[in-house]
Every structure is written in structure tokens, then in C-alpha cells.
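Key idea: predict the complex, not the pieces.
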Amino acid sequence: MKSRLLSVGFMFLLTLCFTAMVSAVKVANQDRIQRNQELKLERIILKVLRFGTGRVSDRELSELFKTRIRKKEVEGRTLYLGLEADGRTLKGIAFPVGGPGFWGPIQGMVGLDREGLTVVGLAFYSHSETPGLGGRLTEDWFQNQFAGLKLPAGKEAGPIFELIPSGRTKKPGQLDAITGATMTSKAVERFLNRELAFFRDKLRPQAGEG
Amino acid sequence: MAKTPSHREIFISGLWRDNPVLRQVLGICSTLAATNLMVNTLVMNAGLIFSLCMSSLTVSLLRNVTPMRTRMMVQVLIIASYVIMVDIAIKAYLPEISEALGPYVGLIITNCIIMGRCEAFARNNPPLASLVDGLAVGLGYALVLIAIALIREPLGFGTLLGFKVMPPGFTPWTIMVMAPGAFFALGALTWLIRSLFPQTTGLAEGGR
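Result:
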């Protein structure tokens, strides 16, 4: 009986020690981890709005974000309004997009020009697609081809863009799919068309106001 | 318990003669998961070596006061604490690699190598010997992961540590990026090493 109590006591003390150690490490690094996540988002937003953030340090990046980006809530979604150097004129609008991929959710950010008519940049920043196949959706050749995509006013029938096998002749609105990743391509096509249409019909009319 | 072997013997045994991956076939899950890019492999190795050394050392220091019936709980608690600390540190200082490794850093907790060394060695041996054992086994694991990453990254991406190493026009072997590629690489490597250096001492083959 006594040895049992001893075991419980020993376990209790040891757990206390180690929990305290882990908590201390956690508390010491919490701010840094959170800051990393914010920085990642800030970098993506500035990137899709073409702020030229190729080799900018973290400090400069968050300074740029603070002075040139304004947040705005519309229809329960967050829009990021990018401003020109004067701090007043609108440069572009960014908004987060996301949807189911093949293996898990895909999250990204779309940047549009100041009228919200043309896509200027797009970046995916979170996904669990197969590395080397669907995972290539974060590669520049795939993301950059969305720049220039038009979102004309009015509810037209049909999708805003299509992904078709690379090597075929392209009409406007037709982009290269990822070879060997048909399911990921289809998934991106599905949710991104829906998100872009949602922006065009619901968010854009209210984006410029205020 | 037999007398504690010399540090040199412990080192050679952990690193090579009883290599955890090639000889004992332990820690295979992370060997398959974290070897498609060399950078990830190196961080994973550092995380494992740190967790293994610290766990072995701590288990060994507490070996005379730990009540027998709680030893598994104690080991899991110790291992989990160190691994969570490693995970937090990687998240804070190497956020991009942390994302690439996903859950695998946290899963070091369940890596059979660490639990195996604590249970088989550290709880019966003095602290310094346990530390050497942890280091040797950790390096043995790291060596195999690096060897596999050396096969997978050039063939799967055409790069090594992000630099292009394959000739232009090389078509990456997509399968090398995925888990099956790791199976092939690990299988081939194990076969090669075991054929070239047949086991002469230690445990008999089979039965594991």
C-alpha cells in the first residue's frame, strides 16, 4: 500500500516538473509563433497585390503591411485593401479563398486590381496535396498564370476560368492544369470559380466604398 | 544485468552494428515520411537526436528512484515533454520547415527507437553511457535518413538542399517524392547493407 502511494506521489511530482518545463518553453515562444503566422499571412497578401516583397526583411514587411494595407469586413469576409504610396488611393484588393482539395482543405489569397476586375496575383499557402503532384499548386508557373484573369460584371453562365491539360491552345480563361494531378486541378477549378464568382457578385460592389 | 559495455562499444553498436533502422527496423514511419527533402530530413534528425539523448539521460538519472510499475508512464512523460519542446522550438524558429514536416515532429513521441532505448538501455545503465547510447542510436538513425534523402531528393525533385543537381532535361521521378518511393529506397538500402555486411554478432536474424 505504501509503495503504491509512493508511485502515485512520484508520478505526480514528475508530471508537475515536466508540465512546468513544457509550459515555460511554450510561454516563452508563444508570441514568436503567433507572429510567424501573422507574418506569413502578411507576406502572402503583399505578394498577391504585387508589392514587390521578394527580399524584404520581416521588419520591413510588417511596416509595409501596417502603412499600406487596410482591412475591411464585407459579407462576413475579410478584404485587404492595398493602398498606393500616398496612403489614400486604392492599389488593389486581396481576399482569402479556400475550399476542399483532393486530400484536405486548400487555402489561398487572391489579389485584384483596384476595380476588382482583373486578377493580379494568386498564392496558395496551405494545402495537403501530394508533394510533387497536386502540391505543385504552390509553384510560380501555376499561380502566376492566374494574373490577368478577368472578372467582367454581370452574371454570365459558365465558369470564370478552366484548367485544361497543358500544351493545348488556350482561349482566354483557359489555364494549364497540373499534369498528373487531375483531382487537385478539378478541386481548385471548382472552389476558386465559386470564390471568384462570390467576389464578383457580392464583395466587389461593396469593396470600394468607405 | 551484465556489466555496462564501454562507451566505444556502445557507440559502434548503436551507430552501425545494431543500427536502429537497417538492423532493428525501428522508426520506419518517420524514415518514410521525412526523407523527400534533405532540409526536412536534417531538421527531423536534429529533433530526434536531441529528444533521444535527453530522454535517455533523464530516464537514466531517474532510474534508481523510479518505481518499477510506473516506469512506462515515466518514460512516455519524459519523451513527450522533450518532443513537445522540440516541436515548439521548430515552430518558433523554423516556421517553414515546421509546416513541411507537419505532424511528424510531434510523432517523434511514438518513435519506437526512443522508447526502445529508454526501456532497453537507459533504465539499467549510468547516465553518461545512456547519453552516449542515445547519441549513437540517434546518429545511426540520422545516417540512414540522410542516405535515403540523398536518393529521393535528386531523383524526385532533381535538387539537393534546393540546388539543382540533375542535368537539364531530367524528368523528376514523381514516385520518389511519395511514400512508395521511400519504401523502394529503404528496401534497397537495407538489402544492400545487409548483403554487404552480414550480421555476425548480436541478435539472431528473424523473429522480429
